[in-house]
Amino acid sequence: MIRLLFTLSLVNILLVGTFSRSVAQTSLTPSTTWGSWMTGTIQLPAGKRKWGGFAELQARSNGVFNQFFYFDVKSGITYEIDRTLSLMVAGAQVSTYDYKALADGPLNTETRLWEQLTLNQFVSRIKFEHRYRIEQRWFNFRNGTMPYRNRIRYRFNTLLPLNNYTITNKTAFLSIYDEIFVNPIGPVFERNRIYAGVGYQFDNQWILQVGWMNQTNYDAATFDKGIFTPELATGKNNLIIGLTYRLKRKNAAEKLPTQSD
């Protein structure tokens, strides 16, 4: 039964990812090259009173470890109702640049606020995460425009420890997830992410994760002045490196090593 659940989850995620990549490859936009995302996270695990938090820095590059164009800082507070249910309120400041002209300043800065609900399932040694997020986004573009947008995200993540029954000290683990991004105004389906990676929890404090992530953005089909433009999708593969440091805390609740982005 356990093997069946894991196999079905893996097949579902791989099918979504294959669909995303096939659409991207058949779009009018040429295939993109590899990029990289590097993330450093500090976590305060939930203690006896169930409150916790995190802070994070992230940089993204158009190439692998070069042509950096995206920087953000995030922080938030969490409330662990129990080991299967947690709430979060968090925010971020995001800056996007032209990597060819970093000295010209950001093309856009974004202030983001979100509310999040996370449900965890523990089926034998397999861990499932369902993450629901609602985002409020304020933009400030270089040309002076300042639009506001909402976004809804859902991520289904599967984690499997390899050399231990649980993810604890000296544990290697696999992580596979798919995340969809929805714009409630439209176009409704705007982005998909699929990730597969391996991680290692050295001890109660240090966790390293390395993986592959394909992010595909969608432009909805349009019909304007008698001209029909089909749906376009642009996808990009990225090398993901994430390092997490957990602060020591007495009576800390168990926390799955999932990525906060």
Automatic annotation (TrEMBL):
Signal peptide range in chain numbering: 1-24
Q: Which organism is it from?
A: Spirosoma pollinicola
The lineage's top-level taxon is Bacteria
- Tell me if Signal is a UniProt keyword of this record: yes
> Which is one Pfam family of this protein?
DUF2490
Q: What is this protein called?
A: DUF2490 domain-containing protein
InterPro entries for this protein: DUF2490
Q: Name the keywords, alphabetized.
A: Signal
